[in-house]
Known about the structure:
By secondary structure, the chain is of the alpha/beta class. It has two domains: 5-258 and 471-496, Glycogen Phosphorylase B (Rossmann fold, 3-Layer(aba) Sandwich); 282-466, Glycogen Phosphorylase B (Rossmann fold, 3-Layer(aba) Sandwich). Helices cover 37% and strands 19% of the residues. It is built from 19 helices and 21 strands. Strands 1, 2, 3, 4, 5, 6, 9, 10, 14 and 15 form a ten-stranded mixed β-sheet that branches. The protein has a six-stranded parallel β-sheet with strand order 18-17-16-19-20-21, with helices on both faces. A three-stranded antiparallel β-sheet has the order 11-13-12. It is globular. The model has no long low-confidence stretch (mean pLDDT 96). Bound molecules: adenosine-5'-diphosphate and alpha-D-glucopyranose (GLC).
Amino acid sequence: MKKLKILMAASEVVPFAKSGGLADVAGALPKALRNLGHDVRVVMPRYYGIDKQKYQLKPLLGSLGVPMGIMGEEWAEVYEGVLPQSDVPVYFIEYERYFGREGLYDENGVAYSDNDNRFIFLSKAVMQLAKKLHFQPDILHANDWHTAILPLLLNTTYRSDPHFAQTASVLSIHNLQHQGEFYKGVMDVLDVGWEHFTVDELECYDRVNLLKGGIVHANAFNTVSKRYAQEIGTEAFGWGLEGVVLAHQAKLFGILNGVDYEEWSPAIDPFIIQHYDSGAMGGKALCKRALQERFGLPVRADVPLFGLVGRLAEQKGIGLLAEAVRGLLEMDIQIVLLGTGESWAEAFFSEIAGAYPSKFGCYIGYRNDLAHQIEAGSDFFLMPSLFEPCGLNQIYSLRYGTLPIVRATGGLDDTITNYQPHQGKGTGFKFYDSTADALYGTVKWAVETYYHDPKGVKQLIANAMAERFSWEESARGYEAMYAFSLRERFGSHPEVAR
Ligand code: ADP
Ligand code: GLC
């Protein structure tokens, strides 16, 4: 395939800023595309917490004018860095009033009231920056609602701008629940013309829906697993956009995320007490011991230890866990949980930790080192999500020989195969109903397998650790989508056909 110029925008990128899996993807996919020979560049906000010195960010000369419609022009500074261990440029948009804050999207659980302006600003800055850099992208790649207006801007404000005459757009949806819905007055900031405020484009129940605009205007869009791509066309998973998804299904792709095995491998992980790998599993027992000590649980090699790391949001099935947890703790097991999110959940699980100090450990907060230690030290990993576009932790778990217990939805269903006891097959344990009973039953099955079928467990661990989800393969999926988007926009594109 022809080498492409790709401009990717995301609201969070590892290692600079992260709240969830989007950052993992935005930090890894560009490197994989670079390895395939593409000229890919990334744009993100320069949040207050991003240390310019630590990442050796260099200022670009001159300020960047960003036209904000009714609010007039606003001026950003731009800093340049690279993704670690690569030469992929990352451009940081600095604007104190929007990004000089503690949180990415919210503080103390309350979303910033100007998130519409903040991310419209980011998206418009992406377009302006491309021009300032004289970088004429073949592909504009938006991610989630924050940058979903890039395809819209390309089709409206920049439609006849020669700078973008060769450019097609794609949108990756990492989570359809969050759509960027705002008061319609924001149309005057978007400044693309009120004729786009219709039910076929940006309007949704008299409000502006930025993600919808992205789906409509992108030349192609994708979700991060095939299964989720099918699910979002249904009422149960569409969050009201299922009709729009179905109307644009012909340009919808499902591309599974990969894993950055430089970061998530027990053989080289700098955060764990002892390295291990299939064939030399001794270190895992030490990691388990360290984890039990870390959470003040009785140090026992013989008890099955379940880990959970994630945003404490309904999406993650924490409601099911909350309902099931007392029953689960009647078994001879231990559970450790790391997460932040909804305040009821933070309070509830802290209370459970207080009530069952020898069985349940809980850390409310965001700790990357601890996330690694839980992956390494647990025997099983809980992901009872109600929906899951891809999910990364269950894939990390496979590599650490920590058997995932998942609900069969989205990427969880695509990445984990259920244990088939007599055939030695499977990489984890699956359940189907989103009920506490189904979760309980499956954990019980895992516990019984752990105590009574050690050979089966060993086989499952070997199967799990042999799995690979490479970013190279995902990047090839993105190449196919980019080629499609260029054909969509320009008809048969001679450059792409090669
Ligand atoms: P989502 O993007 O929906 O949050 P994913 O499974 O795709 O779910 O990715 C979550 C990522 O965020 C993983 O890398 C996980 O380790 C990390 N993560 C989530 N919560 C925490 C936390 N409290 N501390 C450390 N890492 C976390
Ligand atoms: C989202 C999804 C998660 C996915 C991640 C990265 O936040 O909730 O399932 O793995 O994005 O694509």
